[in-house]
Design a protein that fits this description.
Layout (H helix, E strand, L loop, with lengths): L6 H15 L6 H8 L3 H4 L6 H20 L8 H17 L4 H5 L7 H5 L2 H9 L4 H26 L8 H8 L4 H8 L4 H19 L5 H6 L5 H4 L1
Helix pairs in contact: 1-2, 1-4, 4-5, 5-9, 9-12, 10-11
């Protein structure tokens, strides 16, 4: 084992390597070269590239949790999930190919999972169904992943590829609403907030406190119904 080589340092350098070369260039061999060691030295800490990506994704989630750690304990689910969505987007955008790299990675640190407990406890105590909350969190995560993949693809591509003027030229006449749609998109930050608002509005309809009649209509599922 290389002297002074720690998992934390490996992950930090792996994230820097990702920013330099993109996900396709992140390999154990390339990381070893960056660290000035032979690849076998890294296998004391990470088994393979997927294990490395899991560690990188876990670090990103730690940073997301740190970003929302200052929220008040009584923050409602809507504000809490919105803050999580914004923090997740920010962390994905902080790294080249961020959303594509970190989505689907396995959390390797139990403390990252344990940090969810106070939020789930507060929201279920307020009458919300646990399975509904998990579905909502996964839906919000999926929205952020998809949005940022598209956002980063556009940002990392040439201007000509997504030229609105070229799109207008190819469309021609007779489709004024389709033509106008590209001009009404706005910048990515404003678009993210609009679309996140739509997601939250839909969830607001679904995540009403779990009264007995509602639980029965859904087949009695959920934490309170299962006893």
């Amino acid at each position: 084992m290389a002297k002074g080589l720690t998992r934390a340092h490996i992950v930090t350098e792996a994230l820097a390597l990702l920013d330099d070369v993109g996900i396709d260039g992140v390999t154990v061999r390339a990381l070893a070269e960056r660290l000035g060691v032979r690849a076998p030295a890294l296998y004391w800490h990470v088994r393979d590239k997927q294990d490395l990506l899991d560690e990188m994704g876990t670090e990103v989630q730690r940073r997301v949790q740190a970003a929302i750690a200052g929220l008040a304990a009584d923050t409602g689910w809507r504000d809490g999930l919105s803050a999580y969505a914004r923090a997740l987007r920010a962390e994905y955008l902080a790294h080249r190919d961020g959303a594509r790299t970190f989505s689907g990675t396995r959390l390797t640190d139990p403390e990252v999972l344990r940090a969810q407990e106070p939020w789930l406890r507060a929201w279920t105590a307020a009458g919300l169904d646990l399975r509904d909350l998990i579905d909502a969190a996964e839906l919000v995560t999926s929205f952020v992943v998809g949005f940022v993949i598209e956002e980063q693809e556009r940002a990392q591509s040439s201007d000509e590829r997504y030229s609105v003027e070229e799109r207008d030229r190819r469309l021609g006449e007779g489709v004024p609403l389709v033509t106008a749609s590209a001009h009404r998109r706005g910048d990515s930050g404003a678009r993210f907030e609009r679309q996140l608002g739509l997601v939250m509005s839909g969830l607001g309809t679904a995540l009403a406190p779990a009264d007995p009649a509602r639980r029965q209509a859904r087949g009695g599922r959920g934490m309170q119904a299962s006893g």
